[in-house]
Give the backbone structure.
Amino acid sequence: MKLPVRVCHYNRVIIPFVRHSSTITDDARRKLAEGPGLEDFINDDVQKWDDYEGKLRREKGESERLRLPPWLKTKIPTGPNYSRLKDDLRKLKLHTVCEEARCPNIGECWGGGKHGTATATIMLLGDTCTRGCRFCSVKTARKPPPPDPEEPKNTAEAIAAWGLDYVVLTSVDRDDLPDGGSEHFANTVREIKRRIPSLLVECLVPDFRGDLKAVSCIAACGLDVYAHNIETVEALTPYVRDRRANYRQSLFVLEEAKKFESELITKSSIMLGLGETDEQVLQALKDLRSAGVDCLTLGQYMQPTKRHLKVVEYVTPAKFKHWEEMGKSLGFMYTASGPLVRSSYKAGEYFIGNILRKRKEALNS
């Protein structure tokens, strides 16, 4: 069995490509099959993070940036896998969230990590977003260049050539387009499914301004997982996200997607460390479950540049473990919670993929 992709995601939406290694052990496969735990999302070199004595939270009125705690430190990207993947992506003229959003996991994902699984995350619809969320470093413009009409075909060709079990497609927001780019997005999924019908496809999409025609276009295009991120708690949404984004609108989009295709698995993500309270996080989790969301990821917000929102708090791995347990108790099918977790990262796709395959097996039996 091939391993699916591991995806990095730095506070933004994404598509991963993976090269498989024959050196993956049976133990690693078994661990992936059981789903990820907290230990999969923290720095392997840090054993005593609970003994850290550094400052983890900025108090009101303080302006200095917090020092990065040890469990969030990552290595400078190097190695043959990293270089080869970078060259491949440049030749294909594909844009990656890894680079555009300055993802802290780029070295691990592009380099292959300890399991030798190299991953990149590609943005559809270009590299320029029409929105200006205060947490995201993807470049913005009121009217970006038009989408490349060959992108759906080129993306499908690349995926078919690299050999995948599970792929996540994403895009920037394109409010300048009448349909938000939904048809272009859907065409990419159709091209992939036409070439590889067995491939499981997750779409991590914008809110399309709440346009249900665009939502239904994506939901009915043949995908397996519909993902959209609420990003933060309701109280912080106006401060963190672009003014055109709306907490309730995001919940509405996630809920409506399932009405178009009841068998869809839906998924969302929350960043922590922006000043939210535990009560607000718990309410966000309950809101997502009320909207029928199946899968949840929680990760640490990390300031990409000095121009962006400062980190208010570095959340400890123990607190992330608490939210993982809370997600399980609320009934999420799958909860990944850890400092370096992004909306699609590491073993999550494998875990969801197993669920999807079991569903299909049951329908065919």
